[in-house]
Structure formats: C-alpha cells, structure tokens
Amino acid sequence: MRKKKRLRDPFGNLEPGTIEEARKLKNLPDGRYPMAPVQDPFKVGSGINLRIPEVMRLLQHDAILSANDGNIEAAGESCQAMLNVTHSLDGYPAFMAFLLRMAAREVALVTVERTLANGVVSMERLRALQAALEREADSVALYHAFRGERAFGHEIFLLVKAGKISHSKRLGGLRTRVPSGFYDLFSSLLLRIHGQELRSQTEQVHASKLRDEAQTEGLHAVDQKLKKSGDVTTPYMQRFVGQLVENERCIQAKLRCEILAVTAERFRLERGTWPRGADDLVKAGMLTASLKDPFDGQPLRWKQTTTGLVVHSIGPDKVDHGGKINRGTAAVPATATNWGFELWAPEFRGAPAPAEAEK
Question: Are residues 345 and 282 in the same domain?
Fold first, then answer.
C-alpha cells in the first residue's frame, strides 16, 4: 500500500488532462524528431526532446496504477504509447538517441510484462502492442548510431584542421595513452589518422547493418583491427562499443520473447488454450515466421508451466537455465538466468506477491 501511495500522490499534482494527453501517443506510431543542419557538430541531436525519460516514467507509473486499479485497458494504452515514444528515436543518427532509446526500451518492455501479469488486455490492444514490438525489433538501431558517429567524427576533424577547435575538445576529456595536450601542440600528427578513422568507422557502419551473431563478430573484428593499428586515440574512443553491442543483443532477445508472448496471449484469447509452440502461431497467421534467439540462431525456447508460459533466450552465457528469468537490465544481468518473458494464466494474474518476496 505504501508503494502505491508513493506512486499515486505525485499524480494528484499533475495538471488536469496530463495523463490523457500522454496516452494519445499510442496513436502516433510514426512520430519523429526534427533534424536541422548545424554548424557545431557538438550540437547534433539538439532536435531530440531530452524529456523522453520523464514521459516514459509518467506512462510507466500510469500503467502500474491503472493495472493495480483493474483498468487493464488503460494500462495497455500507456504501454503502447511507451513503445511509440521509444520508436520515435528510430533513424536518428546520433549515439545520444541510441542511448536514450536503449533505456526507453528497457522501461517499456518491463511495463508490458507487468501489465499482462495483472489482467487481460483486449484483442485489439494486443494486436497493436505486437505491431509496435515488431517495428522496434525490426529496426537496426546500432546502424543509425554508427552512421551518426562517423559523420560527427569527420566534422570534428575538419574543425581541427581549420583551427577552430583543439584536439582536447575533440576528445571531450576521454583518457588516451598520450596526453591530449601533446596533440594540441602537434596537431598534424593527429590529422594523419583522419582517413584511417573514416575507413574504420565505415567498416563499423557496414557491420552494424548485420544481425545478431554476425553483427557482434563484424564489430568485434573492427575493434581488434583498431587495437592492432597502434593509434593512440582510436581504441580508447571505441572502448564502449563491445558493451553496447552486447546490450543490443540482450534487448533484441527481450523484444523477440515479448513478441512471442503477446502473440501467444492473442492465441489464447481466440482459441481458449495456450499454443504448443511458435509454430502454432505461424500456422494461425499471427506470426510470419518463428523468431530466432539472437545468441545462437535457434528458435526461442518455449516452456509451459503450471502457472502459464515462459518464452526465453539462452542469453549471453549461451546456457539454457530452464527459463529462470533475468529481472535485471541488459547492463547489469543476474547470473545463471535467461532473458525472457513470463506470461501468467488468467487465474494467477493480479495476485499479490508471496509474503517472503516482500521481506
């Protein structure tokens, strides 16, 4: 009760109609942010609304409260709105957009699972949620991020060549093997790597268009090539790429599991029974094809339990832990668990957590 009160009290301070206005985002699946030419590449991404996390939290808390109050349809609307907000960053060529999108995906996916754990969403809303999830899963988010980073890096080199900014500003405080001030004094040494960096970033762009293991292997190959190049700055500037790629695969696993689970719920509503597997969903015309696990290329694991259904991926350790779901984030996963989605049978939905879980 105290948790619900902490959530509900701030809602009383909102302007009338705020929640209703936020839910209207469910009707805007193709919204995008403006992109205008800028002279200063450090201002790339200025067209993005940086209050996206606030909007996502507002919708998430609305979904939680609505579900707890038994208004599952309203909760489903907020979930759909959250997925549309997340997808509004699609195609924006900036790493900032990718990072915002990565966080938004985590929040949206958790909220959809929680909503379906509290009640039964209408068939119409389930179709809309499935479509929104499929749009997000089909996008190659890293590709747009790397394209933007390549353009950003090129423009920065041009500014250094023109004497408009220093090498120190180019690095933005990033630690390198050689103090950045050295290159402020001898900038011609740095400018020699301009072509090499463009080639490397173009290889990253091409690799990022691939999927799953192929994408990871392609980007890893570029990373290893950079580390062997002997350049004193590039490997350090790319040091986060491996973690971003791994996080993207984890998010893809969650998205695909969620698509299967939402589609399975559609099947249950229509047929009155759980599907035996993803093939039943394909035969019913609810899926175009069985979804693959991004970590091994095999069909996502499917497990019926005494309380419902679990769809899961083996995850980055590539071990099937029997569908024990990871409740952490892609950045901080729990050990000996799988990424996935637990769909409860209707009679178990909305039930309070076991007493021991509250301790």
Answer: yes
